[in-house]
Design brief:
Elements: E1 16-22, E2 25-31, H1 43-55, E3 60-64, H2 70-77, E4 83-88, H3 91-104, E5 109-113, E6 124-129, H4 137-149, E7 151-162, H5 167-178, E8 182-187, E9 190-196
Helix pairs in contact: 1-2, 4-5
């Protein structure tokens, strides 16, 4: 069984384009088998974007577990002055994101393969994560804990997580790491949290 947070070199390819609109901007991204939410932008990402775009995050922004790039590339399209780094462990996801960066003609985004923060350099003003729930709590909690060391002082971690996927325990864990965790929005079972270093 192949999972979107792993790379399976034997996995067939069947690329497709998905389209969505947010805040009057239209997007078209390439997806494929073996990546998360390959048929459409998932509800959690969309709910997350509706909160994050109006916040106008500035500086260096890191998207951990970027998939084919829906979260980070949409944010980057709304802010050409900030610098975005997108990372994923899945080689196919990284290749798709790089293609989507090119197709969207984004000059403020880089994408690299990385096992969470393994290949990440420097510190960030914001880290955004739509955690890969099927990877398990151990993996996603590493994402949350590791974010602390990759944020500047005053920088923030933002996450989206469903109540049914452990939103409250994730909130408690993040609060234990950061000393704070604020609910920004609840949207159809999705909880969007911010923790500031």
């Amino acid at each position: 069984m192949s999972h979107y947070f792993e790379f399976d070199s034997d996995l067939k390819s069947s690329p497709k384009l998905i389209k969505y609109e947010i805040f009057d901007q239209h997007f078209c991204l390439k997806t494929d088998l073996g990546v998360f939410s390959k048929n459409n932008i998932d509800e959690g990402t969309y709910a997350f974007l509706k909160v994050l775009i109006p916040l106008q995050l500035k500086g260096r922004i890191l998207d951990v577990g970027c998939g084919y790039g829906a979260l980070g590339l949409t944010l980057a399209s709304f802010d050409s002055n900030s610098k975005f780094v997108l990372v994923d462990i899945n080689e196919r996801a990284v290749a798709l994101t790089k293609e989507n960066i090119s197709n969207l003609k984004l000059k403020n985004v880089t994408c690299l393969q990385s096992d969470i923060y393994q290949n990440v350099d420097g510190r960030f003003d914001s880290i955004v994560i739509n955690p890969p729930i099927r990877a398990g709590k151990k993996v996603i909690y590493q994402m949350f804990k590791g974010a602390y060391d990759y944020l500047i002082d005053g920088g923030s971690l933002f996450i989206v997580i469903r109540k049914s996927h452990g939103a409250f325990s994730a909130r408690d864990y993040i609060e234990g790491v950061f000393g704070n965790c604020t609910l920004l929005k609840r949207d159809k079972g999705y909880y969007i949290y911010q923790a500031t270093k």
